[in-house]
Amino acid sequence: MRNSRILLKEAKGMVSKETWASSVLYPYDPNLPLYKRIPTQIYTKFCLSQISNYFVDFKAREFTATATRIYMEVSASLNKGNRSNLVDYMTHPNVEIAKISQKHGKELPFKIFNDIKTANIVYARISSETEDNSALVNFAHVTVKIDNLDENGQTHSQTVVFERRLDNKLKESWKICFIEDLN
Description:
Layout: H1 17-20, H2 34-54, H3 60-80, H4 86-89, H5 92-104, E1 115-128, E2 138-149, E3 155-165, E4 175-181
Antiparallel strand pairs: 1-2, 2-3, 3-4
């Protein structure tokens, strides 16, 4: 079962990080010791090659540009207050959280910045909702570490997980499913 397809409860207070994440909790740990980081990097390279086998339009070297574009589209939509565009760029639980936060006048449990300094792929995996290995229930996850600049010029690091269903081979449909601040 996927950890995060949790039904959102409409509440006066905001929900915790575990509730708003849509696919995978804590996908990347930058504090891993070296002996654990090397197998993770090997697994990431393997998964990136598998993902490029699944999708015609996926190129690992160009994915950071795609990730940056999606992140900036979400930033522009949130800054304009246009929540309807979020459906194209974020998974359903995150869109629901945006609607709930707007309804109750609360802040989102994640921060979206307007300026990106750098973006790098740090982790990739293929996961499944069920034990079935069909493409209908499998997802590709690519974790990108993004260094953002705030209004004061300070750098803030985030890990952003992008998700795509494996049965959707031709249309580029990566969506943000998890954002975690590292600072």
